[in-house]
Amino acid sequence: MRRVAVTLGLALTACSVPALDLTGKRCPCPTGWDCAPATNTCTREATPVDSRLPDDSGVDAFGCAGPDEDADGRGDACDVCPGDADNGQDSDDDGVGDVCDPSPLTRERIAFFEGFHTLPATWTIDGPWRQVGDDLVSDSGAGTISNFTIVDPVPNQVSYLVTRLTVGDLFDPQGSTNYVGLVRQLDTGPDSNVRCLVTLTPTDGMTWFGLRDTGGLALRSEVAYPYATGQVERFQFRRSGTDYSCASTTETRTGTTSVTAAQPRLGLRTRSGAATFHWVMLLVQD
């Protein structure tokens, strides 16, 4: 058995664009805007919300306490980028800060953010998952598949599943597929899914990054992925209907698959590998 230790993730960057003026646009209105009932149009909120305040201002419009994943002084529940320390800038006023906004020209919102400060009760645990400190750890033995998932809250909308993770060991037993990463369109009976992953090829010991669907047959879009031990990055997994993209710091792979699920689940997945997931977030395009 060969083991390869790696550390992975995805850095999101967004160019700064002028703030959109939505005055007079028809409701519904995004975060930071009020709906005027008389005209059914948007107006700026009279009191600035937390997304417009710099992280070091010492002011919290929501009085938000509790876990602060990025230690920027604003609790996760009020932070426009809960996984990334930021200055509160939100150029398109959509409630997702520029630092973590995957598309500054479209409007997204945070559907959920989970920092694993406790073990979330609403998620389904399948396999050896455990909460350690403020992280979620999986250590799947040879041939073992482990899922940590939740029902997709927005299955009919464009969305981005994002995580920061540290990969431990990818095991290389003969004849066993190994990977760690994100999973979407998961149906567990029988198992079908689409994955954004890093994997180790048993035959040559090379690591690869990319997209696979059930069995890795209909969709397999991967690229050789060099890494440096100790590097911290993120994965971003976008779905728009049957179109998918899987991005890391330096690579993006795209593809199309017809894999579906009656009640699709999404989340984290490992097989024959170990990983520490620091947080996971779902952004949805409205």
Structural overview:
The protein is mainly beta. It has 2 domains: 178 residues, Exo-inulinase, domain 1 (Jelly Rolls); 87 residues, no CATH class. Helix content is 0%, strand content 42%. The strands form 3 sheets. Strands 1, 4, 6, 7, 9, 14, 15, 16 and 18 form a 9-stranded antiparallel β-sheet that branches. Strands 5-8-17-10-11-12-13 form a 7-stranded antiparallel β-sheet, with no helix packed on it. Strands 2-3 form a two-stranded antiparallel sheet. Strand 6 and strand 7 form a beta hairpin.
SSE topology sketch:
Layout (H helix, E strand, L loop, with lengths): L2 E3 L27 E4 L4 E4 L63 E7 L9 E3 L2 E4 L2 E5 L5 E7 L7 E13 L7 E10 L2 E10 L6 E7 L6 E5 L8 E8 L2 E5 L4 E5 L8 E7 L1 E13 L1
Antiparallel strand pairs: 1-9, 2-3, 4-18, 5-8, 6-7, 7-18, 8-17, 9-14, 9-18, 10-11, 10-17, 11-12, 12-13, 14-15, 15-16
Query: Biggest β-sheet, characterized?
Result: 9 strands, antiparallel
User: Remind me, CATH topology of the largest domain?
Assistant: Jelly Rolls
Unreliable residue stretches: 1-19, 46-63
Compute the number of structural domains: 2
For the record, the CATH class of the largest domain is: Mainly Beta
Beta-strand proportion: 35-45%
Q: Which features does this protein show?
A:
286 residues; mainly beta; Jelly Rolls; nine-stranded antiparallel β-sheet; seven-stranded antiparallel β-sheet; 42% strand; disordered N terminus
